Amino acid sequence: MKKIIFIILDKFANWELAYLSAALGEKQLGTEQYTVLYASTDKEVKTSIGNLKALPDLSIWEIPEDISALVFIGAEGS
What we know:
13% of the residues lie in helices and 29% in strands. It has one helix and six strands. The strands form two sheets. A four-stranded parallel sheet has the order 5-2-1-6, with no helix packed on it. A two-stranded antiparallel sheet has the order 3-4.
């Protein structure tokens, strides 16, 4: 499984990750070889600009070296 890590912060722009994260890991799209994980500065719940709440899988210090991609999601004030 290839790992894609999305970096999210408080007040992240949830629409920036919506399409890409939904498409990754889908057999119908031929992307089933990918797994999506979310990372942040800590493992506390992050709230998007649109009030979507997300619990990161990893802290940024726990990101493994063998990832396939690192995607930075915009956030208000960042």
